[in-house]
């Protein structure tokens, strides 16, 4: 089973793994869930190992690898190179309603990420392009995350945020379009998409206990763009993704 990777991407980009000092490793186990938008596919769950590392320049969180060019100190703006897994995939043979539709493979994206922390919250932006020769498309996102509640000693905290996501026409067509070849062997008409924008809301939190143990949770609700909602292989107008993880910091 190929899990929709939106939830796994949350694991890679969330700031909830930030440690108290540099050169810190975290490891543990997590449960990931995703409500896929494709027809005939239900909510999927999977248990995965979690690994994360934060050094002075290198940050590795699950499927996300980042290298700081500027902003080596915390709480200052930071420009970074980044490599991530794209948050979309489709194994069409798992759905009886997608006969004739080809598999949409995982893809790797590489580009730049900018983090801008303020007293009000953290603003960030990312723009990446396919480097795995799957679709030659691009994905960008503008994010805002704010601490909304926390313990005085920061043993627990809750965050909330907003996201605006952009998918290029090549990206959107690969994951949500229907090609002429697929239309010829399926019940679906050919369908092409232009570049799309779609918005979402994130909620997360952590609870630290017993010295180096931490319970982490993150979720995202995404309202699908009209062109994606109108795709003949899509059923639904939004998706919900999330994960819960237990980690130990070395």
TrEMBL record:
Signal sequence extent: 1-23
Keyword Isomerase: no
Keywords: Cell outer membrane, Membrane, Signal
Primary location class: membrane
Compartment(s) where it occurs, according to its Swiss-Prot or TrEMBL record: Cell outer membrane
Record bears the keyword Membrane: yes
Membership in a protein family: Belongs to the MipA/OmpV family.
Protein name, as recorded: MipA/OmpV family protein
Organism field: Glaciecola siphonariae
